[in-house]
Amino acid sequence: MTNDDFTVWSRCVDAVRSAVPFPAVGEVVRADLMYSQEFYWNFYYAVPEHNGVLLDWAWTVPEGVTVADVAVALNQLVERRVALRTKYPVSLLGLPMQCVHPAFDVPILTWQDTTGGGLRELTDELSRRPIDPAVDWPIRAGVLLRGEVPVSMVLVFNHLTLDGISTAILRDEFLALLKDPQGLPEVIGREPISQAAYEKTASEVGRHERVLAYWRRCFEQMPNMMFTNYRKGESGSPGREGGTSFTAATLSTVELVAAAEMIAARHRLSSSTIFLTAYVAVLSIITGHRRCSLYVASANRFDPEVQPSVGCFFQCGIMVADILPEMTVLQAAKRLRAQSLTSYGNAHHSFWNAKELAVRAADERGVALRVGVYYNFTQPQEATYRDELQRTAVTDASSLQLTWEEDVDWEDYDTDLYLRVVPNDPKGLFLLAHDSVLSRDEMERILTAMVTLISLWAEDSAIRQANISHLGEKLGLERRQRTAHWTCVDHCWINVSELTDLLCAIPAVITASVFSDGAGDEQTLIAYLASSDPEIEPNFLRRRLLGSLATHPNIMVPHRFVVCTQAPVPNDEQGWKVLPVATEGDGKDPLHLDPSTREEMALLAVLETFNPGMVKNMARSYVLANGRAAVVPAIIGRLALEGYSGILPEDLLGPQPLSAVAAMLQKCPRP
Q: Which residue ranges traverse the bilayer (predicted)?
């Protein structure tokens, strides 16, 4: 077991050991998680590098305030805001929950600034030990001293407890309490525990069904992944050896934002749309995808009842940006504006329900689905930054002043490429990529092309009328070329050679060939096989390939299997077509497998413990057997207590059949 494996595995064990009954008795109030808390709760149990501390915030302490004053104000905040005294254990049934405890006195670490770098030192010390969401308080506090004088207060906290907007609310309340301990009005708005209950009301359930229908369409339409050179073993995905090596580039945005706002005003768009258009257009060129799937960050506070609330309401929406080659840049921008607004409107969703939908779509399409690309335009709350913009300034793309950072400590293992734009930040354009996906030179070409596009567009050149299909030439970018071993089917780039090798490795298969049929969106894959077993069935072949997707993400399960009893001469498509056929089909007809091995029976017993009514069929994936994503960490923990290791949460949340998952189990000492 690798160190990463052990970290994830042991956290799942701890989750089960700290399980609590639901509902609670006494002073502790318990409730389900909010939708927006699900992702960050899951994050702790999925990412080995993630220490449970995602955010830290430093506030300047006003003159004349003592450490004792800080402690009093902070304790008042804890009593006032339930999110600051909430823990997140699992129930005995494996479902995570919010547990709101009575107010407590927050321990404060004092730190002398003897080096001039005390603020960073204090933050690092507070963040050094993980915050276990089940048993630890969600916040830690420290005060930086110069002599006896407090100069800054640092808060470190779980992201599932607070988001960025909440920290601004807390800062204002903290400063107000320092001035007048009795001066704050009563809390208004819907706090996290009330929001969780609100999400279960009939009107919200209906809204959420419509939201999930949107997510389902996105999973049905998106490419399998944006970057075909992505590999789990190289991206630090949980349970796999390999680094989490990211490189980041930072660029000043003052002139660039000025250019984007000029364009936006001219076409009645937003500057966010202009950056998004440049991002998607360049991304389409360098990946060779017409459709680009990406997560779009959303503050998710459209509901007035949560705007003044303290909690984690932030979520990412999903969008499948589909810009046609014959569109002009301006037409593409208008389409992307509409698509991004739809994404924002559907961002408030259950992470676990969406995860289950993704698995079902992956099974139906026969691919491994991964988004991996992020866009985050942070709209400043104050408009003062606009005064700094030089409305006539246009950035010269040939002289970009990039600041580079290598081996970035980026905890989100699900990231391939991330773009953040903060208009009021002097270095507000931040592009980060995993080293297995893009090189530093490629990142620089992306930024140069984006800046060139926005700059030329701001000058009112003909670029806005340029067709998307010709944009690469104008920006100095070459569309990614692939060898003959690759083909694009269902908007997914598929390595046909790799798929053929996997088919040939199946017992009783003598030889195999894969061909594409049809054109455009109607194109399909057909696999021809010669088998020494005339009774080999397409559903068996399909199940074997589904089990290979976790380690071979660039393949696709063929849409049709044609099994012959001999190999053709010559070995080409026409040669296969004239052979007698033993059997053929899409392999989607039902296949039932009862558990037979010790590992299969052990796995199914634990799955049923946390999923009453689960379908007992080892030929299905966990989700297609009606398994719930929310209880997967508890399943891993319970298996460990039964003496089994070898699988991690992500192994259950994919299209591979349960028989393939059970084959990964290994006996181990009970922890």
A: none
The pLDDT tens digits of the residues spanning 312-342 come to 999 999 999 998 889 999 999 999 999 999 9
Q: Is 20 left (phi over 0), alpha (psi -120 to 50) or beta?
A: beta
Residue in the structure block whose two tokens are 């080999």: 536
Q: How many domains does the chain have?
A: 4
Q: Are 315 and 36 in contact, with CB atoms under 8 Å apart?
A: yes
Is 332 among the domain residues? yes
Q: How far apart are CA 658 and CA 647, in angstroms?
A: 11
**Is residue 565 within 8 Å of 530, Cβ to Cβ?**
yes
Domain annotation covers residue 480? no
- For 119-147, what is the mean pLDDT? 94
Torsion of CA 601, 604, 609, 612, to 10 degrees: -130
For residue 525, the cross-strand partners are: 516
Beta strand segments in 492-605, E: 492-495, 509-517, 524-531, 560-564, 581-585
Q: What is the structure's pLDDT at 392?
A: 38
**C-alpha distances in angstroms, 16 versus 9, 21, 166, 270, 442?**
11, 12, 30, 47, 44
Specify whether the CB–CB gap between 52 and 44 falls below 8 A.
yes
**pTM value?**
0.93
CB contact at 8 A, 157 and 139: yes
Contact by Cβ (8 Å): 360, 46: no
Domain edge (last residue) among 555, 585, 615: 585
Domain boundary among 450, 475, 500: 475
pLDDT of residue 325: 87
Taking the CB of residue 127, how many other CB atoms lie within 10 A of it? Answer: 18
Alpha carbon distance 349, 245 (integer Å)? 30
Within-domain flag for 139 = yes
What does each C-alpha distance from 354 to 209, 216, 238 come to in angstroms?
11, 8, 20
What is the model's pLDDT at position 617? 96
* Residue 150: its H or E element: strand 149-157
- Output the pLDDT for position 397: 57
User: Could you tell me if 204 and 35 are in contact, meaning their C-beta atoms sit under 8 angstroms apart?
Assistant: no
CATH number of the domain at 452, please: 3.30.559.30
Q: Residue 49 sits in a domain of what CATH number?
A: 3.30.559.10
Q: Domain span at residue 654?
A: 598-667
The answer to whether the Cα torsion of 410, 132, 629, 306 is positive or negative is: negative
Residue 639 in domain: yes
Name the DSSP letter for residue 331. H
Contact 72, 181 (CB under 8 A): yes
pLDDT of residue 6: 83
pLDDT number for residue 399: 60
Instruction: Using the predicted structure, report yes or no on whether residue 496 has a pLDDT greater than 70.
Output: yes
Same domain for 278 and 394: yes
| Count of residues making up the chain | 671
What angle, rounded to 10 degrees, do the helices at 496-504 and 538-546 form?
120
158 in Cβ contact with 56 (< 8 Å): no
pLDDT for the residue 375 = 96
Q: Is the dihedral of CA 406, 407, 411, 412 positive or negative?
A: positive
Closest to 348 (Cα-Cα) out of 222, 218, 201, 209: 209
Q: What are phi and psi of 98, to 5 degrees?
A: -90, 135
Q: Are 658 and 603 in contact (CB under 8 A)?
A: yes
Which residue spans within 232-372 are E strands per DSSP?
Answer: 246-251, 291-298, 315-322
